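Quick one:
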Amino acid sequence: MPAKFDPSLVYFVGAGPGDPELITLKGYQLLSQADVVIYAGSLINTELLNYCKPEAACHDSASLNLGQIIDLMATGVQNKKLVVRLQTGDLSLYGSIREQGEELTKLGIGFSSIPGVSSFLGAASVMGVEYTVPEVSQSLVITRMSGRTPTPEKESLESFAQHQTSMAIFLSVQEISEVVSRLTSGGYPAKTPVAVVYKATWPDCQIVKGTLETIAEQVTDAGIRKTALILVGEFLGDEYHYSKLYDAGFSHEYRQA
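Output:
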């Protein structure tokens, strides 16, 4: 029995990191029933549009401004069409969802958000790593370098680097040399492992591994200038410890040593 969705709402859907099979089941159901799809064409894998019905009106938002996007949404809802706004990864990270929601609210239009798989999760999966290695790192900082969209001063790369925990840095690979400079001046040793993952989970995914000492030159040589994550931290290194959860000598609620 197919799910039923409310055409009086706009549905924001996280498209996932690239592999079209990594969209959620709910996201797939929405795409397959949508009458209007507004997708981030410069970022998503457009193979996802193959899930749409042939008569669906699909609009690439790459060349649209906020007002034009809202007009498409509002027109669709007013005409009792099921409207889906398809955005890359997960909506909660660098998705510009709040401003779209605020504008819809001003028009008296409700919305619902369907989460997706973020690229920082896709990057970890293609590398077969975890960010939270016992006794090495139990925290993950997700951030970006300040650019045309500034970051608050208290959230500088240098300040985060003081903790030397795991980091996933978005939207910054085009400034890889500056990223390295800020991380090392903040406290990461030059030998800290780094990986740059280009288009995680896409068919043309590329992984470059190095250290803060070498990664800038490696990324330049690889020709990677966008659509890549910078992963930093000892979670990428050779040191690791097994967790206590499955340790035969460790008791907990469900198992006695």
